[in-house]
Amino acid sequence: MKKVLFVLGHLSDKDIEWLIENGSTRQLRSGEYLVRQGESIKEIYIVLSGSLRIFNEQNPQHEIAHISSGEIIGEMSFLDERPPSVSVVANEEVKVYRISLEPVRQYMEVNTRFAARFYYSIALFLSDRLRKTTSRLGYGAPEDDIDELNSNILLQVGHAGSRFHRLLNKFAES
After folding, report:
1. pLDDT digit string (tens) for 115-135?
2. Dihedral sign, Cα of residue 31, residue 44, residue 55, residue 3
3. Half-sphere exposure of 38 (CA within 13 A, CB side)
4. Of 8, 51, 98, 102, which one is least surrounded by beta carbons within 10 A?
5. Hey, which of 1-15, 65-79, 143-157 has the most confident mean pLDDT?
6. Residue 57: how many CA atoms within 13 Å on its side-chain side?
């Protein structure tokens, strides 16, 4: 499942409009870094098209993950304000939606309902990632790695899909 659905599914249409108005796109060429390990980042990214690889600079040949459209990057640094522990580089031409962290934090101060929805969606996203990682390491039950959604999340998927398409359409001409 596209990880962006965890986030967009729990935000309101007004939240999405605010994100669209306050974000922009960025194009990357193959081999270009989006994130460098140990260097602070000031934005959250949603991959709109293309693919990227995630790796540790100490072992750059070992790919930790391969991500593509619908994935989110920078959520951990948003939460804990620490530099990323991995690097992210484009495998091909990539287009990402980006929004600076400072305006998001400022908007959260004046719109606490947005803040609650945003943090809840990030928590769901990270919980899903942790369950999958635990399972891949051999500590979870095999069925924990199945990409199933509970009924709460399933209700939001339709909205999330249309919101992601709205982001894609908005920035298609950029």
Report:
1. 999 999 888 888 888 887 788
2. negative
3. 3
4. 102
5. 65-79
6. 10
Q: What secondary structure does DSSP assign to 17-81, as a single string?
A: HHHHHH-EEEEE-TT-EEE-TTS---EEEEEEESEEEEE-TTSTTSEEEEEETT-EESHHHHHH-
- What percent of the chain has a predicted confidence (pLDDT) above 90? 53
Instruction: Decide which of 12 and 168 is more confident.
Output: 12
Q: What is the mean pLDDT of residues 67-75?
A: 91
Domain covering 4-166: architecture = Sandwich (2.60)
Place of tokens 């306050």: 22
Model confidence pTM above 0.70: yes
- Phi then psi for residue 5, to 5 deg, are -65, -30
> Do 114 and 108 form a contact (C-beta atoms < 8 A)?
yes
For residue 52, what are its two tokens? 């990227």
Alpha carbon separation from 39 to 44, 46, 62, 126 (Å, rounded): 14, 19, 20, 21
Residues recorded for the chain: 174
> Taking the domains of the chain in order of start, what are their residue ranges?
4-166
Distance CA 40, CA 84 (A): 7
pLDDT band at 84 (very low <50, low <70, confident <90, very high): very high
